[in-house]
Specification:
The complex is a heterodimer of chains A (729) and B (186). Chain A is of the alpha+beta class. Chain A contains 24 helices and 21 strands. Chain A has three domains: 2-269, no CATH class; 291-476, tricorn interacting facor f3 domain (Immunoglobulin-like, Sandwich); 585-726, Neutral Protease, domain 2. In chain A, strands 1, 2, 4, 5, 8, 11, 12, 14 and 15 form a nine-stranded mixed sheet that branches. A five-stranded mixed sheet of chain A has the order 17-18-19-21-20, with helices on one face. In chain A, a hairpin with a 2-residue loop joins strand 4 and strand 5 (349-350). In chain A, helix 19 (620-640) packs across helix 22 (655-685) and helix 23 (688-699) crosses helix 24. By secondary structure, chain B is an all-alpha fold. The chains are: A alpha+beta (729), B mainly alpha (186). At the A-B interface, helix 10 of A face helix 2 and helix 3 of B.
C-alpha cells in the first residue's frame, strides 16, 4: 500500500512539473521531424514516408527528451539540497524505484497522447493503405520502446555517477553513437531502429519482429545495468562500493541484474534474424563442389507447411537418387540458416548428418551420406524461422511469412541439392504447400499451382511441378490481370490493396510498353511452353530478379506517391522495367558467371536497355540525370576510392573490414561501369540506331549449345571495337 | 596567480566528472575511428587531413559540451555562494576570471590531446602511419576556433544566466539537425 501511495505521490509531483509537460509536448510533436528533417526510411511507400519516419523520429526525440527529463528529476532532490531529509524519510532505493515507475508512466502517457494526436494526421497522409495494426505496431515499437530505453540509460548513468553533468555527457555520447556510427548496425541502434521500408500492400511483421527483438535486447541490458546502478545508490553515508555491498545483501537483486545482462548478451549473440554468411561476395565454394560420379538425382518432392502466425515454416523434402557407382557418396544440400534439420532418413532408416557452421549466400551446408544402391530415397524434415543474409541486415523484411504475404526463395522452400547431377529429365520436382485459403500461390517460373485439397480449418493445399534444384514461391492476397503483348500473355500479379494505384498508374500499359520496346528493338522472346510470362509484385525489397518465364516488380515501382511525381509521370516502375529486360538479357541470352575482375555481366546490357526505355518514356533530361550522371558519379567515386588506388592499405585492415569495403564496391563495375562502356560503344558505333541493330544481331544470333553464353568479346566483335576503345580512363 | 591556477585546474580535473568525460570521449572516438574514419572521407586516406578533420568534427559536439561543463563549475549555485568570500580576497576580479578561464581552457586542451592521442594510436596500429606533422595545423584550425568560441561565449552566457550554458550545449546538435549551409556548420 505504501508503495502505491508513494508512486501516486511521485507521479503527481512529476505531472505538476512544467518541464515534464514540456518534454511530453515536444515528444508528442516530434513525429513532425520525420516528415521533414529526419527521414531514415528511404523507400517511397506511403507507410515508409508517413508512418515509419514520423514514428522513428518521435522515438529518437522522445528517447532523448525523456532521458534529459530523467536526469533533471533524479537530480532535483540533490539540487534542492533536500536529499538528506528525503533519504531519512524514505529509503533511497525505494524512492529511486518510484521515480523510475513514475517516469515510465509519464512516458506511456506521452506515447498514448502522441498516438491519438497523430492518428488522424497519419490516416489522412497515408490514405487507402492505412492499417490500424501497422499504425499501432509502428508507434509502439518504433517510438514507444525508445522512451523507457532513454529513461533507463540516463537513470543508470545518474545513479552510478551521482552527477547531473557527467550523466548528461554519458547519455549524450550513448545517444550520439546510436544516431551516427551505430545507425547502420541493426542491433546497436537502440534509439533509431534500422527500418528502411514498410510495405503498403502486404504485411510488415518480420521487420516489426526484428525491431521488437532489438528493443527488448536493449531493454534487458539497460534494465540489468539500471539494477546494478540502483544497487550503487549511496546509503548511510557510504561510497559506491560500500552501498553496493550493502544493497546486494539480498542475493536476488544482483542475481536479477546479472540474469538480465546474461539474457541480453545471449539474445544479442544468438539473434534469429540475420545469418553469418561469408562477407566475401566472390566466394563460390558451394557452387564449386565436385559432382558425384555414377550418381544422379531422378526427382524430388517437398511438402511445406508455413506457420503464418509465427512467421516460421516446417517441411519435409524427399530426393530420389540412382547410385550406380557402387560406393557411398556424401550428398550436400544448401539449407537456409535458421532452419533446423530434425530428421534425415535413407530408405526409411535414420542416418547421421551434419550442418556446417560456415554460411555462404544465406545458406549453410547439410551433408548426408548416400549408400551404394540402385535406388535410394532420402527424406529430411526441417523447421524454423528463416534468417536473412547479413549483407542485407539493414534492409530486413524480405523473408516475410504471414497470412498476407509469403516469399520462399530456394533453400528457404526446401533444402537445395548441391553436388549431384540430374539424369536426362533434369530435376523434376513436385511441391505441395498448405496455406490459408485467402492466399494465392504463385510459383516464380513457368509452372502453375493448383489447389489439391481444401481443409476444414480454412487452409488449402496447393501443388505444382517444376524442374530444378531450387525454386521460388510467392503467395499472398494477389489480383491477377492478363495482358496481351506481341503475341504472348503476361500474367500480372499484384497485391489487392494496390489495385487502385496500379489502375491509376496505368501499370498494365507500362508493362506492355516495355515488352513492345524490347520486341521491336531486339526481337521476340522464345518461350519453352505456354507462351506466357509472369510478372509478380513483391513486397518492397529494393530490387528484383528474373527467371525463365517470370520477372519481379517491386512494390515501390508504383506507389501513390509516384502518381504525383511529374518528372516521371504516374508509372515509374524502373525495377519492373529492369527485371522485364532481363528476359532478353540474361535469360533470352545467357551470360556466364561474371569474373571478379571483369565488369561484363547481364546487368550491363540490362541497365543500358533500362536507360534507353526510361529515355523514351520520361525524356532525355530525366535519363541523363537519373542514369548517365549517376553511373558516371559512381564510376568516378570507384576509381577515386582510396582503397582501390592503394590496395596495400586495404590489406592492412582486418579481414571483415576488407570484405565490407570490397563488397560495397563490387556492384559499381557491373551496374555502372559496363553501361557507361556500352554508351561509349554506342557513340563509337554510330548512335542509338546502330547499337540497336548490333544488339538485335546479338540477341538473334545462332547459339552454340556447347557454349551458349554471350561474351564481352562477342559484343566487342559485333561493334567492331576493342577493349581499349571502351576504356573510360 | 599560479597557485590559484593550479588550484582551479585541480578542481576541474581531479574529479569523477573529468574521468567520466574522458572515458566517454575515448569510447566514442574509438567507435568513430573504427566505423567511419577507417573508410576515408572524400576519396582520401583515413589518415588524410580530410578524414582526420571529419573525425574531429564528429568529436566536436562532445568536446563542446565538456568545455561548457567546465564553465558550470564557476557558475553553479554553490560557486555563487562561495563568491561572497572570493570577491573579498585581494585579487583583481578580472585577472581571477581570466585565470579560471585559463583553467577551463587547460581542461579542454587536455581532452583534445586525448582525442588526438587516440587517433595517433589508431593510425599507428592500423596503418603504421606516423606523419603527424601534416595533421597538426588542420587539427588546430578545426578544434581551436570552435572550442575557444565555446569557452568565450559560454563564459559570457554563464555570467548572464547560468542556465543559458545548458541551452548553449545544444547548439552543435541543433546545427547538425538543421539543413544549414556549410559555412554555418561547426
Amino acid at each position: 500500500m505504501k508503495t502505491i501511495r508513494l508512486f501516486r505521490l511521485e507521479l503527481r509531483r512529476l505531472l505538476q512539473s512544467r518541464l515534464t509537460w514540456l518534454a511530453a509536448g515536444l515528444t508528442a510533436l516530434s513525429p513532425a521531424l520525420g516528415l521533414s528533417l529526419y527521414k531514415t526510411a528511404d523507400a517511397s511507400t506511403m507507410l515508409s514516408m508517413y508512418l515509419a519516419n514520423p514514428a522513428i523520429a518521435g522515438g529518437a526525440a522522445g528517447g532523448i527528451l525523456f532521458g534529459l527529463l530523467t536526469i533533471f528529476e533524479l537530480d532535483r532532490a540533490s539540487r534542492s539540497r533536500v536529499d538528506v531529509l528525503l533519504d531519512a524519510a524514505v529509503s533511497p532505493l525505494c524512492m529511486a524505484l518510484q521515480r523510475l515507475m513514475a517516469l515510465f508512466a509519464g512516458a506511456f502517457f506521452t506515447l498514448g497522447l502522441t498516438m491519438l494526436l497523430w492518428l488522424p494526421v497519419s490516416w489522412r497522409l497515408i490514405g487507402a493503405v492505412f492499417g490500424a495494426a501497422d499504425y499501432l505496431l509502428a508507434y509502439l515499437l518504433l517510438m514507444g520502446l525508445a522512451l523507457p530505453l532513454g529513461i533507463l540509460s540516463s537513470a543508470a548513468a545518474y545513479q552510478f555517477t551521482r552527477r547531473a553533468d557527467l550523466s548528461l555527457i554519458l547519455f549524450a555520447a550513448f545517444a550520439a553513437l546510436s544516431l551516427t556510427v551505430w545507425a547502420d548496425n541493426w542491433q546497436l541502434c537502440w534509439l533509431n531502429p534500422c527500418v528502411w521500408a514498410l510495405s503498403d500492400d502486404f504485411s510488415n511483421f518480420r521487420i516489426f519482429r526484428s525491431v521488437a527483438y532489438m528493443r527488448l535486447t536493449w531493454l534487458a541490458a539497460l534494465f540489468g545495468i539500471w539494477i546494478l546502478s540502483w544497487l550503487c545508490i549511496r546509503q548511510y553515508g557510504k561510497g559506491i562500493l560500500g552501498s553496493l555491498r550493502r544493497s546486494a545483501r539480498r542475493a536476488c537483486r544482483p542475481a536479477a541484474a546479472l540474469l538480465l545482462l546474461a539474457v541480453s548478451g545471449t539474445a544479442y549473440a544468438a539473434q534469429p534474424f540475420v545469418d553469418r554468411s561469408n562477407l566475401d561476395e566472390t566466394a563460390m565454394s558451394f557452387y564449386e563442389m565436385p559432382y558425384a560420379e555414377g550418381i544422379v538425382c531422378t526427382g524430388r518432392s517437398a511438402w511445406v507447411f508455413p506457420d503464418v502466425k509465427a512467421g516460421s515454416l516446417s517441411g519435409r523434402a524427399a530426393y530420389e537418387f540412382q547410385n550406380t557407382s557402387g560406393q557411398d557418396w556424401e550428398a550436400a544440400f544448401g539449407v537456409t540458416p535458421g532452419y533446423a534439420i530434425t530428421k534425415v532418413q535413407v530408405n526409411g532408416e535414420k542416418v547421421p548428418f551434419s550442418v556446417s557452421d560456415y554460411q555462404e549466400y544465406n545458406e549453410a551446408m547439410l551433408r548426408v551420406s548416400i549408400p551404394a544402391g540402385e535406388q535410394v530415397e532420402l527424406t529430411m524434415e526441417y523447421a524454423g524461422f528463416p534468417k536473412e543474409n547479413r549483407m542485407m541486415s539493414t534492409m530486413q523484411g524480405r523473408a516475410e511469412i504471414s497470412g498476407a504475404y509469403l516469399c520462399l526463395e530456394n533453400a528457404a522452400l526446401s533444402p537445395r541439392l548441391l553436388n549431384v547431377l540430374p539424369d536426362e529429365n533434369g530435376y523434376p520436382a513436385a511441391v505441395e504447400i498448405t496455406l490459408p485459403a485467402s492466399m494465392l500461390v504463385i510459383p516464380f517460373g513457368s509452372s502453375d499451382a493448383r489447389v489439391t485439397v481444401e481443409h476444414e480449418d480454412g487452409t488449402r493445399t496447393w501443388r505444382y511441378e517444376e524442374n530444378g534444384t531450387g525454386g521460388i514461391l510467392y503467395a499472398g492476397d494477389y489480383v491477377r490481370e492478363e495482358i496481351e503483348a506481341d503475341g504472348f500473355t503476361i500474367e500480372f500479379y499484384y497485391g489487392r490493396r494496390h489495385q487502385a494505384v496500379m489502375e491509376a498508374a496505368g501499370a498494365a500499359d507500362a508493362v506492355k510498353a516495355v515488352v513492345e520496346y524490347c520486341t521491336e528493338h531486339y526481337g521476340r522472346l522464345s518461350f519453352g511452353s505456354g507462351g506466357k510470362l509472369k510478372l509478380i509484385q513483391s513486397r518492397v525489397s529494393g530490387g528484383g530478379y528474373a527467371t525463365d518465364g517470370a520477372s519481379l516488380l517491386d512494390e515501390a515501382d508504383f506507389t501513390a506517391a509516384n502518381l504525383s511525381n511529374t518528372d516521371k509521370g504516374a508509372g515509374a516502375g524502373e525495377v519492373m522495367i529492369h527485371e522485364l529486360v532481363h528476359q532478353w538479357w540474361g535469360l533470352g541470352n545467357m551470360f556466364d558467371v561474371p569474373e571478379p575482375d571483369s565488369p561484363w555481366s547481364a546487368e550491363g546490357l540490362t541497365v543500358y536497355t533500362t536507360y534507353r526505355i526510361a529515355k523514351e518514356l520520361y525524356g532525355e533530361a530525366y535519363a541523363q540525370e537519373h542514369y548517365v550522371d549517376q553511373w558516371q558519379q559512381a564510376v568516378d567515386d570507384y576509381y577515386l576510392n582510396f582503397y582501390v588506388r592503394n590496395p596495400e592499405y586495404l590489406e592492412m585492415l582486418p579481414e571483415e573490414k576488407q570484405l565490407e569495403i570490397t563488397g560495397s564496391l563490387t556492384y559499381v563495375r557491373q551496374y555502372c561501369e559496363m553501361p557507361l562502356k556500352i554508351l561509349k560503344a554506342e557513340a563509337l558505333a554510330g548512335g542509338e540506331e546502330a547499337m540497336d541493330q548490333i544488339l538485335k544481331g546479338l540477341f538473334n544470333r545462332e547459339i552454340d549449345p556447347m557454349n551458349p553464353y554471350l561474351t564481352y568479346q562477342d559484343f566487342l566483335d559485333a561493334c567492331g571495337l576493342t577493349k581499349e576503345d571502351l576504356s573510360l580512363a | 596567480m599560479r597557485k590559484i591556477f593550479g588550484y582551479e585546474c585541480k578542481r576541474l580535473l581531479c574529479n569523477r566528472f573529468f574521468a567520466g568525460l574522458l572515458l566517454a570521449l575515448l569510447f566514442y572516438g574509438w567507435q568513430v575511428l573504427n566505423r567511419v574514419t577507417i573508410l576515408g572521407v572524400s576519396h582520401t586516406a583515413p589518415f588524410s587531413s580530410w578524414s582526420f578533420c571529419d573525425y574531429l568534427r564528429r568529436m566536436l559536439p562532445l568536446l563542446w559540451i565538456g568545455a561548457l561543463f567546465f564553465l558550470t563549475f564557476f557558475t553553479s549555485r554553490a560557486e555563487r555562494r562561495r563568491a561572497v568570500l572570493t570577491s573579498a580576497a585581494p585579487v583583481n576580479p578580472f585577472v581571477y576570471g581570466l585565470v579560471r578561464c585559463c583553467a577551463a581552457l587547460a581542461g579542454t586542451v587536455l581532452l583534445t590531446l586525448a582525442v588526438l592521442l587516440l587517433a595517433a594510436v589508431f593510425y599507428g596500429r592500423m596503418f603504421h602511419w606516423y606523419g603527424w606533422d601534416t595533421l597538426l595545423i588542420p587539427a588546430f584550425l578545426t578544434l581551436g576556433p570552435p572550442l575557444v568560441f565555446a569557452l568565450g561565449s559560454g563564459w559570457l552566457l554563464g555570467r548572464l544566466r547560468p542556465w543559458l550554458l545548458y541551452l548553449w550545449m545544444l547548439l552543435p546538435f541543433l546545427l547538425m539537425a538543421l539543413p544549414l549551409p556549410g559555412w554555418l556548420e561547426l
